[in-house]
Amino acid sequence: MATDILFFIFITLLLGYIVFLHIKLAKKNIFIESSVKRLSGIEKSWSAEEMMKLLHEMRKISHYSSFFTDKLFEDKPLGFLLENHKNSRIFIHYTKEKQDAGNIIKEGFLFADSFYKTALPVSDDRLDLLIKHNGRKSFGNYMIILCFSDRIFTHYSAELDRYGLKGYSVENVLTETPPFRNENADIVYRLSNRFVKGYINHETGEIIPNPEFNPLYDSPSFGKNLELLSNKPSNYII
Question: Is residue 20's pLDDT more than 90?
Answer without folding.
Answer: no
